[in-house]
């Protein structure tokens, strides 16, 4: 086995779920792979493109729990490459946007294993496109920030510059902490009346787009039983989305919560 030249590990972005959004190179590599090490968010429709002879290894993770620790995934990829097998490490979205692709690239390099990254359409890009929600808009936003909603120490971070007039905030993995996120943004000075869209199951047949105001975000997630995978978009651009529209219905609620959040003073 020591004489076998390590095979290349291909870190492939599977996009947000729709197989039609795969790059041509990604689809080809999936079909040619001997073994596919895939995340849980990779859709069955995409896994169906694999060869019938391919070995499929799931390293699915759930909130606060991994079926296989990241270090073990790194070792698995290196061991498979040293066996000379054609490997695709298949990741939801894009490998380098909250996909831990950088860690796996570093591990392969350190082990002397060739590695190549094939980009994918990120959840934010794909979901926003299907919802016809422009992440940038000449009249509404000239900046976009991607953040992870499950980040540690949320209360210690300053989010005041991430959302507001002329800016878009795209929040991954934020469903479980939606109330805390909304409270934190409002506490850091973001208007409770700022539009918000939640894009659930982006690009998949069961996709839902729901729109409300920042003050109502946490309540809407509970009320509408929103589940992961879902992307939260905060900013004026959310008002452009094709969505189940709750903006007008939530104005009075937002004003009430706004007064509460600002000590009785309404923020205009």
TrEMBL record:
Keywords: Methyltransferase, Porphyrin biosynthesis, S-adenosyl-L-methionine, Transferase
Pathway annotation: Porphyrin-containing compound metabolism; siroheme biosynthesis; precorrin-2 from uroporphyrinogen III: step 1/1
GO biological process, alphabetically ordered: methylation
PROSITE patterns reported for this sequence: SUMT_1
Gene Ontology MF term list: uroporphyrin-III C-methyltransferase activity
Uppermost EC category: transferase
Domain Tetrapyrrole methylase: 8-217
Enzyme Commission numbers on file: 2.1.1.107
PANTHER family linked to this entry: S-ADENOSYL-L-METHIONINE-DEPENDENT UROPORPHYRINOGEN III METHYLTRANSFERASE, CHLOROPLASTIC (PTHR45790:SF3), SIROHEME SYNTHASE-RELATED (PTHR45790)
Similarity field: Belongs to the precorrin methyltransferase family.
Protein's name according to its UniProt entry: uroporphyrinogen-III C-methyltransferase
Gene it is expressed from: cobA
């Amino acid at each position: 086995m020591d004489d076998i030249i390590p095979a290349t590990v291909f870190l492939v972005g599977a996009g947000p779920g729709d197989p039609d959004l795969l790059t041509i190179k990604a689809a080809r590599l999936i079909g040619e792979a001997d073994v596919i090490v895939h995340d849980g968010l990779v859709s069955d429709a995409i896994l169906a493109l694999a060869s019938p002879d391919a070995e499929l290894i799931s390293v699915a993770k759930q909130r606060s729990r991994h079926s296989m620790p990241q270090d073990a995934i790194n070792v698995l990829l290196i061991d498979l490459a040293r066996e000379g097998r054609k490997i695709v490490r298949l990741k939801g979205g894009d490998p380098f946007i909250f996909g831990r692709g950088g860690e796996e690239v570093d591990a392969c390099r350190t082990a002397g294993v060739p590695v190549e990254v094939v980009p994918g359409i990120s959840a934010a890009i794909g979901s926003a496109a299907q919802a016809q929600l422009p992440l940038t808009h000449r009249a509404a936003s000239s900046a976009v920030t991607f953040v992870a909603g499950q980040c540690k120490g949320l209360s210690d971070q300053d989010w005041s510059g991430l959302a507001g007039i002329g800016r878009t905030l795209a929040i991954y993995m934020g469903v479980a902490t939606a109330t805390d996120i909304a409270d934190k943004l409002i506490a850091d000075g973001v208007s409770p009346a700022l539009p918000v869209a939640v894009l659930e199951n982006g690009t998949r047949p069961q996709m839902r787009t729901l729109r409300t105001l920042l003050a109502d975000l946490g309540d809407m997630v509970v009320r509408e039983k929103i589940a992961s995978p879902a992307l939260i978009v905060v900013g004026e651009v959310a008002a452009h989305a094709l969505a189940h529209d709750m903006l007008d219905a939530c104005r009075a609620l937002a004003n009430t919560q706004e007064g509460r959040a600002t000590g009785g003073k309404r923020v205009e």
